[in-house]
Amino acid sequence: MFGKRDTDVLVVGAGPVGLLTALQLEKRGVRVEIYDKDWRTAAHSYGLALHGHSLALLDEVGVLPELLEEGRKVLRMEFHDADGKKAEIDFSRLGGDYPFVLALAQSAIEDSLENRLREKHIPVHWNHRVQTLADDGTRVLVDVAKLDKVSTGYPVARMEWEVTGTVRVRASYVAGADGYHSLARRALDIDFADRGGLESFAVFEFEMTEDPGDAARVYLHDHGTDVFWPMKDGRCRWNFHVDSVGEDRVPSLEELHRLLKTRAPGFPLPEKLYWSSFVMFDRRVAESYGRGRIRLAGDAAHLTGPVGAQSMNVGLDEACDLAERLAGIIRDDAPSELLDTYGEARRADWLDILGETGAPKPGAECSEWVASRAGGILPCVPASGADLDALLGQLGLAAVRTQAGV
Known about the structure:
The chain is of the alpha+beta class. About 30% of the residues lie in helices and about 35% in strands. It contains 11 helices and 22 strands. Strands 1, 2, 8, 9, 10, 11, 18 and 19 form an 8-stranded mixed beta sheet that branches. A 7-stranded mixed beta sheet has the order 6-5-13-14-15-12-16, sandwiched between helices. Helix 7 runs antiparallel to helix 8. The longest helix has 23 residues. It is globular, with a radius of gyration of 22 Å.
């Protein structure tokens, strides 16, 4: 038996992009509900760095002060090879209110956004899996299954998730921010083709006894790209590009030591490992950001590697953009074509970020080292839009852009 609800916008997915979409809609007076199939935010998530533009967006919804307390300001990014540092970008030269990148765990971002929603009396419906979406031209009918843990098995009991109830939500629009396996994208049969193959990384979060400094470090090797991020209170993270991920195991402290000795010689060997994991990343962009009353944002529409933290940060900008357009349509009778231009602009921006409209072009002041690695540097720079162009310019690179992006 179905319960029934009505809302202006139903948000699928309670990661950073979905949570910010909901907050931006509430800020504009739009009724919103948010559903996620998981039971809480991720404990160990791979998102790490907030770009300066993202910090401004998060300030708009009142969560930035606590995030600044949780994170570490990263002022520079260095580019290395086995012989040492070869180039550097300085975030302070971007100007503005937030001339730095903030390094902190994605879970801290999610917790702050959810707490802000709770203050606005908007609960996240955890353990609620969206089952079907049906756009009839005037609204979207959404069937949602409520999941609960139940004890099964005899004589040894075990806990499993089962459907214990259902609800039908009638929404004017749906914002699909439900990640790689997006039901919203699959419901529309939108192609999400591979644009570069899987990249495998060994991720280590650990403690350093000495000050790690204020710079992120990118190491460009023949095998791929590695990145180091300093975090707060001595915590740090390394992402090492590896040939394949381990099966049913996690990378050890000994493996971290081995990788450091071969990839970043001279880097201090940590004594304490907080957590580690193998993870794979795709490079993808959806053929469309949705149609009709169902639209996509964040990892539901695009993916890339972790080094420049581009996917989450551009997703946050998409959340604000989509929320503003939906509010204009719902509250101010703006034309629905706003959603089509949203998708066209965002997809064009991702083709730029993925280098499909051309690699950055070396200028007269570009070093030979940077020029020979321009295509590899592009996905490493933690920025998008005009900020990405400006930071590439510090390296002597002129980006080839469609001018349709952020």
